[in-house]
């Protein structure tokens, strides 16, 4: 495999379809980008024709819209409202079921048949986000068996960015735009097809099952130029030098009140974020009260009840909740998991209804001496 990982291959559109067919025969549910309700989302696909060919997206603070491209590229867009988190860490999961019997209550973990996913179109920032959630659910002090099972069966086809959005700042976070690790296969779309890189033994087996050839030098150069173009297009920046200490030194900064006056506490930023993992646990009683199902569901630190304890909420103001989110994401996350909780994808900027920009808020908070 070592020799294969150093080679760059070329496949055409039919080769990409063969790859999808091969993975489907291996029992994978192929999930990739497609258009639905005016956005590029992730959903099950079986044909290359289902990809958003000829479409791109315009992302600005508080703005997201699709636009037709002047060409017919399959991956000429950035990231939308979905992240791969919804498949590895689903929004609603049954974690336990209790039943009343003649001998009392019995508790049983659910019999889970985990789908074998193959993700198609994973960007570099999203590879980094999956690695962050791996650190939370697999490599931390406690492990999540449901996440572990889905993750262990995952096949990843990454796609290098060849253009950037105005909301991207992955270069500041060191997470992109080039895919460097964490994938089985990686694609770079060029004029006449796709460059293919192999990143794992499973990726090599998949590549061996499809028609391909060694990439020509001009094709390799075209891919390199396109990846470089995406990097040059990224103008949004976040100064991460000493960001943990700088943020924690400004917990009483007056700018928290300013951002709180704009924030709606709608939780959009946490729902679209590919790394946020806040959740709550609910117990649902059947009408006969003979069975209780315990469910885990996504929650958000922006919801006032999320920090509710006996006597009331710990963070009962928008100021407190926004400060908790930002300082956890960029500061105390490092203490917990040894990494930042932000990968620079820009989703929280685009999908904030009022256009609050994390990079601008940090620049304002940390732009001078701590008050």
Please provide a written account of the structure.
This protein has 371 residues and is of the alpha+beta class. It has 2 domains: 219 residues, no CATH class; 123 residues, no CATH class. Helix content is 33%, strand content 24%. It has 14 helices and 16 strands. The strands form 4 sheets. An 8-stranded mixed sheet has the order 3-2-8-9-10-11-1-12, sandwiched between helices. A 4-stranded antiparallel sheet has the order 7-6-14-13, with no helix packed on it. A two-stranded antiparallel sheet has the order 4-5. A hairpin with a 2-residue loop joins strand 15 and strand 16. Helix 10 packs across helix 12. The longest helix is centred in the last third of the chain and has 20 residues. The radius of gyration is 22 Å and the shape is globular. The model has no long low-confidence stretch (mean pLDDT 92).
């Amino acid at each position: 495999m070592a020799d294969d990982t150093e080679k760059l291959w070329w496949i055409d559109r039919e080769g990409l379809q063969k790859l999808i067919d091969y993975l489907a025969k291996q029992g994978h549910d192929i999930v990739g980008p497609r258009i639905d309700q005016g956005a590029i989302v992730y959903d099950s696909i079986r044909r290359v024709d289902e990809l958003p060919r000829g479409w791109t997206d315009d992302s600005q603070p508080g703005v997201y819209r699709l636009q037709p491209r002047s060409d017919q590229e399959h991956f000429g867009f950035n990231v939308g409202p979905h992240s791969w988190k919804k498949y590895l860490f689903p929004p609603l999961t049954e974690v336990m079921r209790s039943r009343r019997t003649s001998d009392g209550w019995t508790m049983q973990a659910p019999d889970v048949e985990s789908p074998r996913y193959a993700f198609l179109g994973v960007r570099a920032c999203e590879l980094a986000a999956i690695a962050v959630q791996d650190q939370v659910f697999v490599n931390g002090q406690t492990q999540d068996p449901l996440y572990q099972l889905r993750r262990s069966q995952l096949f990843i086809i990454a796609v290098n960015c060849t253009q950037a959005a105005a909301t991207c700042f992955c270069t500041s976070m060191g997470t992109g735009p080039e895919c460097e690790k964490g994938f089985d296969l990686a694609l770079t779309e060029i004029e006449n097809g796709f460059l293919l890189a192999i990143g794992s033994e499973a990726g090599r087996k998949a590549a061996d099952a499809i028609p391909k050839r060694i990439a020509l030098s001009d094709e390799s150069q075209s891919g390199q130029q396109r990846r470089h173009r995406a990097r040059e297009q990224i103008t949004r920046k976040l100064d991460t030098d000493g960001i943990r200490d700088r943020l924690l030194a400004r917990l009483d900064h007056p700018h928290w009140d300013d951002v709180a006056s704009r924030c709606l506490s709608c939780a959009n930023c946490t729902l679209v974020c590919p790394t946020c993992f806040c959740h709550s646990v609910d117990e649902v009683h059947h009408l006969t009260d003979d069975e209780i199902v315990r469910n885990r569901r996504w929650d958000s630190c922006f919801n006032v009840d999320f920090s509710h304890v006996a006597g009331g909420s710990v963070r009962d103001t928008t100021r407190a909740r926004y400060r908790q989110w930002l300082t956890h994401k960029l500061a105390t996350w490092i203490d917990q998991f040894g990494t930042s909780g932000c990968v620079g994808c820009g989703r929280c900027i685009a999908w904030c209804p009022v256009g609050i920009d994390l990079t601008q808020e940090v620049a304002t908070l940390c732009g001078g001496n701590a008050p």
